[in-house]
């Protein structure tokens, strides 16, 4: 779990950097100055794809309806969860069921400034009952069937309701293109690791918001390599 804590700290530090802190930032900053949110509802989908050591994946997709409204500091985003889909190996069926039941209290409202930059805000805590139940089941399900290197981080993310690193700051204002950043992290025993983040933005919707925003996080910590992907899509209802 010490390695997991170092990983979370490293990824969080990268995740909340403003657009100008990564390559292509000048373009993103110029674009964000023209930010105008859509007047109607949008559907925001967020998919988390995590690779397991046996080559299989866990894919969690949560869909929300969202609305933008002007406030004095910029804009407020209100939203509701409208669907959850979980694709996981059969051995993780119980954990997948718990993730389907998890709600997102505290996720909305979100705040963005006049340039469309999202204020730092982690997703809200999961239901305490679900969190307790997943802790009880985790050892039996994962402990006997997964390597220790992946069990700790995986259980921690699901049980805390925090497959949620901070959302990309320019999620609603990024321009098409690709950016990347890397950072060295130090584990508690002094060994070094690396965190690599690649951000990819597809074409814009007619309203000017990114149609698809992908974040790929690769960590190499003490010889243990993990890859996760996070895909956000915006569409009309």
Please tag this protein with its features:
single chain; 237 residues; alpha+beta; eight-stranded antiparallel beta sheet; disordered N terminus
Structure report:
By secondary structure, this protein is of the alpha+beta class. It is 25% helix and 36% strand. It is built from five helices and eight strands; from the N terminus they run ααβββαβααββββ. It has an eight-stranded antiparallel sheet, sandwiched between helices. β1 (42-51) and β2 form a beta hairpin. α3 (93-101) packs antiparallel against α4.
Oligomerization: single chain
Question: What structural class is derived from the secondary structure elements?
Answer: alpha+beta
The count of β-strands is 8
What is the typical, i.e. mean, pLDDT? 75
Q: Per DSSP, what share of the residues sits in E-state strands of 2 or more residues?
A: 35-45%
Radius of gyration: 18 Å
Largest sheet descriptor: 8 strands, antiparallel
Order of helices and strands: HHEEEHEHHEEEE
Which bin fits the share of residues in helices?
10-25%
Distance between the termini: 41 Å
Provide a count of the helices: 5
Segments where pLDDT lies below 50 for 5+ residues? 1-33, 122-127, 136-152, 158-164
Shape: globular
* Spatial strand arrangement across the major sheet: 4-3-2-1-8-7-6-5
């Amino acid at each position: 779990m010490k390695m997991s804590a170092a990983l979370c700290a490293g990824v969080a530090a990268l995740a909340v950097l403003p657009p100008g802190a990564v390559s292509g930032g000048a373009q993103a900053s110029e674009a964000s100055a023209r930010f105008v949110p859509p007047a109607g509802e949008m559907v925001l989908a967020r998919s988390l794809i995590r690779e397991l050591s046996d080559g299989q994946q866990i894919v969690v997709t949560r869909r929300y309806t969202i609305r933008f409204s002007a406030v004095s500091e910029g804009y407020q985003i209100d939203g509701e969860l409208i669907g959850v889909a979980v694709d996981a190996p059969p051995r993780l069926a119980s954990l997948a069921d718990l993730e389907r039941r998890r709600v997102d209290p505290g996720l909305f409202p979100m705040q963005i400034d006049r340039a469309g930059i999202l204020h730092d805000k982690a997703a809200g805590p999961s239901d305490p009952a679900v969190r307790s139940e997943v802790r009880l089941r985790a050892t039996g399900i994962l402990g006997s069937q997964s390597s220790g290197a992946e069990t700790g981080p995986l259980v921690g993310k699901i049980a805390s309701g925090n497959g949620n690193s901070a959302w990309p700051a320019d999620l609603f204002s990024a321009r098409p293109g690709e950016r990347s950043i890397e950072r060295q992290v130090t584990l508690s025993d002094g060994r070094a690791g690396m965190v690599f983040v690649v951000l990819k933005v597809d074409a814009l919707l007619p309203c000017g918001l990114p149609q698809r925003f992908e974040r790929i996080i690769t960590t190499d910590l003490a010889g243990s390599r993990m890859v996760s992907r996070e895909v956000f899509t915006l569409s009309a209802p």
